[in-house]
Amino acid sequence: MAAEITTFVHSEEDLNQAIKISNALFSGDIASLTAEEIEQGFKDVPTIQATKEDAKLVDWLVESGIEPSKRQSREDISNGAIYLNGERCQDLEKVISSSDRIEDKYLIIRKGKKKYF
């Protein structure tokens, strides 16, 4: 019924896009999304404008406000609570670079099970 309502109010194309975005989020295959799909799927998610390139993930999480301290950042990375574009990252030496961004524009961070940035 939800699919019928979405198709009626929007279009079948919008329904298919919503399904693709939902599947990517739940499966962790965020890297398969386009920049436009990310903008649609994450429009109500807190965003962080990051201009610093080649920063260590530990530092970047603190500077962006995702983590309160470097100690907590290291702990969450070590425990596997940090995901970059759907991939678990447990590398304390990970450096964030432009190659990590989807279409050179977006880096989707997930902390824990449900917190997206």
UniProtKB/TrEMBL annotation:
Q: Which UniProt keywords apply?
A: Ligase, RNA-binding
Q: Name one GO cellular component term.
A: cytosol
Every RNA-binding S4 domain range: 55-113
One example of a Gene Ontology biological process annotation:
tRNA aminoacylation
Q: Cell membrane: present as a keyword of the record?
A: no
InterPro entries linked = S4_RNA-bd, S4_RNA-bd_sf, SYY-like_C, Tyr-tRNA-ligase_bac-type
Q: Which GO terms describe its molecular function?
A: RNA binding; tyrosine-tRNA ligase activity
Query: Any transmembrane segments, and where?
Result: none
Family matches, as SMART domains: S4 (SM00363)
List the Gene3D superfamilies hit by this protein, alphabetically.
RNA-binding S4 domain
**Per its UniProt entry, which superkingdom is the organism in?**
Bacteria
Q: Which organism is it from?
A: Listeria grayi FSL F6-1183
Q: Which PROSITE patterns match?
A: S4
Descriptive protein name:
Tyrosyl-tRNA ligase
Any idea of its EC number?
Answer: 6.1.1.1
